[in-house]
Amino acid sequence: MADIEDFGNIEVIFQDEEDKKAPRCPHGPTILFEIKCKGEKNGRRFYACSACRDRKECSFFQWEKEKVSEARLLAREQQNLSKLPPFSHAQYCARFREYASLPLDQRRFCVDCQILLLPGEWSSHSSHHILSDITVSQLRRPSLLLCPLENNKSNAQYLFADRSCHFLLDVLFGLGFRKVLCLGTPRFHELIKMQSIDNKSDPIKSLLLDIDFRYSQFYGQDEFCHYNMFNHHFFNGEEAAKDFLDFLTEDGSKVVMVADPPFGGLVKLLGHTFSKISEIWRKLQGTESSASEMPMVWIFPYFFEPRILNCFPSFTMLDYQVDYDNHPLYKHGKSGRKQSPVRLFTNLCPKDIVLPKEEGYRFCSICERYVSGENKHCSICNACTSKNGKEWKHCPECGKCVKPSWLHCSLCGHCTLPNHQCGQMGCYNCGDQGHKRKACPSKGKKNLQQQKSGKGAKGTFSLDTNKTTGKNKRGKNAHGKKKMVR
Ligand SMILES: C[S@@+](CC[C@H](N)C(=O)[O-])C[C@H]1O[C@@H](n2cnc3c(N)ncnc32)[C@H](O)[C@@H]1O
Ligand SMILES: [Zn+2]
Ligand SMILES: [Zn+2]
Ligand SMILES: [Zn+2]
Ligand SMILES: [Zn+2]
Ligand SMILES: [Zn+2]
Ligand SMILES: [Zn+2]
Q1: 188 Cα nearest atom in ligand 1
Q2: Is there a contact between 51 and 24 (Cβ–Cβ < 8 Å)?
Q3: ∠ at Cα 114 (112, 119), nearest 5°?
Q4: Euclidean distance between CA atoms 15 and 36, whole angstroms
Q5: Whose CA is nearest to atom 16 of ligand 1?
Q6: Is the ipTM reported for this complex over the cut 0.95?
Q7: Distances (CA, A) of 39 to 162, 441, 454
Q8: How many Å lie between the centroid of ligand 1 and the Cα of residue 298?
């Protein structure tokens, strides 16, 4: 049975075995989407890229039943090949060995091309910006050498601040994990590897899975796989998939998965991948193990809580605020830390994850978890209810705790911002005040017309369909926050 997620206008269709037969874009098998049109029982289905939310980055589009000519298939194949990294991972490893054996004054890095240069290549980069005398410690910290791909909407490479990176490592080490599967966490992977050099007697192993192939230059095939987390695709095929399985099985030590995906990515696709990994892990445990889910930490903004819990009911959202170095909104500033909306979602036992007292977190013995200092326990809800770290207040009419700045509006029938246009919020989709988006008669129609006119899938509509980040007419997301993309 197909599993369908409703994103408003567009839904994702999972078909499992059939998914393997989906046409491929440069980012691996594409995803089947369905667009619904009013009055039609069945929507129209099409394939589009799993990884790129911006059609400019990957313009793949094909109707489900569309006949594709041999010539177009060939052109597509060539296009996919042309997007492959310039070297294979094995070649990158051989280059690295040669590079590391060079004397310091011959170790150069091309900033423009983001590549470690061998002496024979210097002349072709002579007009480029070059860094020289690359030290061993620089080679151990590729996340500092490479420039983060933060402007690229699909990569959204925001790197952990040291504070958050060390906190995470200390917690997981303390809980006895000696293997970490790092999904989209290059800086965390790097920290684990560095600490293992310092702590040879009790090291932690780490395998990084990330779409940023530049990391192949620095890590062996047992340390890094070029990977797409939206469709669980290994770019290096069977060989890399085997390295991943070997990592999960080797030496029998406790493994945890830590994922920090770009948060414009579709939650349902990520949940599907993480479940798949967990299932692979479970099967590898053998029959003796009663554990049913792999230990996981999914790092994502708090306002995705309902959808993450929908994918993983066993997860808890922790109050810990994750900071990033290169994100202007979420890092420690001169004037103190701006509150980061990014949290840890995990199936680890919340009471075991001790949040730092010096940052104001405290233990709530009723909820049996650490919470932020201002998150007060509400005796009516019987929980520490704040999501954003500020003190929330209980509204008897709504029967739940709400943000302190909200007021109960009897006309709207719930708590909301005091300066909202009462009763005039109308429909997200068309602005009409007579109905809400769910009942919108033009839901889906606009997009389909755009596609028919040839603008649709290639340019106009976006698969940036996480409702909470989707911009509405007021330039705000569904939570009244300014849209945040990372
Ligand atoms: C928000 S950053 C997280 C980095 C992490 N905070 C760290 O410091 O290690 C997102 C990461 O996911 C990677 N990424 C983006 N899209 C991906 C995809 N489709 N598959 C796998 N990794 C992806 C990016 O290259 C980036 O490293
Ligand atoms: Zn693609
Ligand atoms: Zn260059
Ligand atoms: Zn509590
Ligand atoms: Zn309450
Ligand atoms: Zn209320
Ligand atoms: Zn109102």
Answers
A1: 9
A2: no
A3: 90
A4: 18
A5: 155
A6: yes
A7: 54, 9, 22
A8: 12
Tokens of 313: 């009911």
Give the pLDDT band of residue 10 (cuts 50, 70, 90): confident
Residue in 52, 141, 149, 155 to alter for ligand 1 test, most ligand atoms within 8 A of Cβ: 155
pLDDT at 172: 98
What pLDDT is attached to residue 258? 98
| Nearest alpha carbon, ligand 1 atom 13 | 184
Q: Residue 442: what pLDDT? A: 55
How many Å apart are CA 306 and CA 302, to the nearest integer? 9
Domain spanning 162-384: CATH 3.40.50: yes
Choose one of 146, 172, 229, 244 to mutate for the ligand 1 pocket test, by most ligand atoms within 8 angstroms of C-beta. Answer: 229
pLDDT band of residue 450 (cuts 50, 70, 90) is very low
The reply to whether ligand 1 has any atom less than 6 angstroms from the CB of 386 is no
Measured CA to CA, the distance from residue 161 to residue 176 in angstroms comes to: 23
443 to each of 3, 89, 159, 448, how far by Cα in Å? 21, 46, 38, 10
Residue partners of 153: CB distance under 8 A and separation at least 6:
52, 53, 54, 57, 264, 485
Say what percent of the chain tops pLDDT 90.
69
Nearest to 162 by CA among 340, 332, 357: 332
Q: Has residue 47 got a pLDDT over 80?
A: yes
Q: Which atom of ligand 1 is nearest to the CA of 160?
A: 8
Give 153-205 pLDDT, tens digit per residue: 667 789 999 999 999 999 999 999 999 999 999 999 999 999 988 888 889 99
DSSP H or E stretch at residue 276: helix 267-284
The yes-or-no verdict on residue 273 having pLDDT over 80 is: yes
Ligand closest in space to the Cα of 383: 4
Which numbered ligand comes closest to the C-alpha of 412? 7
Spans of all domains in the chain: 89-145, 162-384
Q: List the structure tokens of 372.
A: 């932020």
pLDDT on residue 476? 36
Helix axes 186-198, 162-174, angle to 10 degrees: 60
35: nearest Cα among 9, 61, 3: 9
Q: Which ligand is nearest to the CA of 400?
A: 5
In the prediction, which pLDDT does 428 show? Answer: 53
